[in-house]
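User: structure tokens for this one?
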Amino acid sequence: MTDYARDAAAVRGATDRLMSSVSRLEESAVGEPSLLPGWTRGHVLAHLARNADAMVNLLTWARTGEPTPMYESEDARDSAIGDAAGRPLPVHLDDLRTSAFRLYAAAAALPAGRRSYEVTMRRGVLEPAGRLPFRRLFEVELHHVDLGVGYTLADLPAAFVEHALDFLTEVRFAGQPGVPPLRLVSGEGGRVRHTGRAGGEPPVTVEGSAAALLGWLTGRTDGAGLSCPDGPLPVLPPLG
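Assistant:
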């Protein structure tokens, strides 16, 4: 599933699309609500810049073997986002651009032999360094949608949507106690994916387009456009 070079290139393309959208905003739009509860667009932009630097920390850790946490602490992460949210649009744009360049350099500097090295993300999640570019791509694409600037789930590249669904079912939600067994059927060719806890329970079938499934699994929608022949849509835990 993971292709380091492909994902690193996709991050560049996704970042370019994000920067193009943000550069067309009016100055006042930064302080307006995003699609994420409690966050303005400025919060989303600040988060994306600091997440880029957090990924640099993890890539540096993988390259050198010296532990370099994503963030100093959860409080420090939240404070950095909150403190930077209200900055002028040109400052956000410059921060997004320069943090992205730092990330590109760190990704290029990681030797192929170090991509299997595991680093620790937030909440103690272990992750091979080879999947970090995709982790960043996941952030950029979904938070571009969260900005509420006209880029929607339907605009996400099909290859990213398929990759994201694989990641969610095979990694993020696999075996989690809060996730019921699911049988996810995407409309494009009727591809079937399974996820959720084991235990002998029959899986709940959820059907719809790949983009609609992604929106529901990531909490971006309430399941609009999906069908569940087995009953109501299950309640999923937040991604966190």
